[in-house]
């Protein structure tokens, strides 16, 4: 019961935050130099055409009226229409979002598959050869930019073997899966070092806890001590670090989608910025902001589930 | 019965513990030997830093990181003798109860699940079968409403209940030998009495052997048959609890008794032991208590350490007669 209350509280806290974000996104339109109507009609259009568009968009209304209109639009699911294609921004996002979800989802899974075993093995014997090697490779991986890692993976895996396409997302789920492996691996390599470091440190700390000694005194085996006594206590700091890095991850998605020509949100935002397609930029920004808020919320929920004591303290 | 009583469940001989801290090596346990017969309860008493808890932990190979022990530790269970491999006895003959029931329980594991883990170690029962056993164990250590409490987290339980959960988990492994590391120190006095009563009852019911470490002679007197008094990493006196309390043969034991309110009737001022225990980085040669001993003589500072006496009673003091003269 307490846990639901905790989640409800966090959700309630997210609402004013989202209103603030909508305000900032609205201001993008206001502070961007140049006349949005001019962007739509083009440089050679007549004054009359320009005024027509200004009236359509309500650009002559007071800013406060425009702001409330924008809030009303956002609340009813209308994020405006692209200056370039005239398509609804919501449908552009709906088309691109699955690609990015595939990328982030598989990237996160792969990063866990890489980092959890490495962290456990390193923490079991800290400061031994394996630990040092893991840390060394981690530093190297951390220092390599994603676009470079992506290109190297294309050159050394995709091209010689032909197992994975060098770019694009394909048409069928099987093709999607094949297309996402290398981008997801690139993403995983960029975040795994952080996870290994954080998880390794927390596992070492937890291994020294008295309740682990209790488990050993009862004859509980190594594997069960790790899975039942250590990991659940060691996870929360790593979950927080992952959540705090969500901005970095989204940025990573932008770079990786561009490298692998994946038609996702990241590629979309680069395109929209290049074309000065302000409604699309606003839509993507709002989406990113909502994702960040959601990820923080999910991290809080995971942490509260992992550590039952948090219910009481909240 | 005679044969059973004569079996020595635990034999510790010449145990040393080395701790490496910040590049320096200490020997907080320096040649400790003790034996526990089947069904017997041995108390180890000493002040903080005397090495009593480390000795106990060394028995199960549970020293903190940087700690290493050597010496002979042998177990003789009903199923046979074991020495050398502590992993074979943890949860299989020996279990341990810790001082701080809050830190000794996994904060992210429900009370019943911890006991179920221990049941599993012992019998490999399925979760469902273990459940009934868990509730039975919780009831047997006096936890009211065990089915509900089994679903609670450690932080939702009181200190006394937490310690009962710890004891239930230890019992789940059906130990022949129970090691208790100051199990009542962190508890309120009334709860302390309940837990001591529980331990005494369980020992009688199950015929368990027990090693009970405490800084409190009164507590040891309540649950133990024999006592070993430790000072600065060594045992300075052993014997049956009542005899040692009545007529100590080591000045340190006598000083401990004089400073404990439980043994000094009336409202008189309690004695204190002057000075403080020696630094384990530089133990003095000869008798380590000599610097604080009211009866120390010159030869005490050269005396080599030996526990003089027999199985029944022994003291490391080379002048035990001074105590008899003092009390006469």
Secondary structure tally, helices of chain B: 11
CATH superfamily of the largest domain in chain B: P-loop containing nucleotide triphosphate hydrolases
Strand order of the largest sheet of chain B: 6-7-8-3-9-10-12-11
Which series of helices and strands of chain A comes N to C? HHHHHHHHHHHHHH
How many β-strands of chain A, per DSSP?
A: 0
Count of separate structural domains of chain A: 1
CATH first level of the largest domain in chain B: Alpha Beta
User: Pairing-aware structural class of the strands and helices of chain B?
Assistant: alpha/beta
Write the layout of secondary structure elements.
The complex is a heterodimer of chains A (314) and B (328).
Chain A (H helix, E strand, L loop, with lengths): L1 H30 L4 H6 L5 H11 L5 H13 L13 H36 L4 H15 L2 H16 L11 H35 L2 H8 L4 H23 L1 H14 L5 H11 L2 H29 L2 H5 L1
Helix pairs in contact in A: 1-4, 1-13, 5-6, 5-8, 5-13, 6-8, 7-8, 7-11, 8-10, 8-11, 9-10, 10-13, 11-12, 12-13
Chain B lengths: L1 H5 L1 E14 L2 E14 L3 E5 L6 H8 L7 E11 L2 E4 L10 E4 L13 H13 L3 H14 L5 H4 L9 H14 L4 E5 L7 H18 L2 E6 L2 H7 L2 E6 L2 E7 H6 L4 H8 L49 E2 L4 E2 L5 H7 L1
Parallel strand pairs in B: 3-8, 3-9, 6-7, 7-8
Antiparallel strand pairs in B: 1-2, 1-4, 4-5, 9-10, 10-12, 11-12
Helix pairs in contact in B: 3-4, 3-6, 4-6
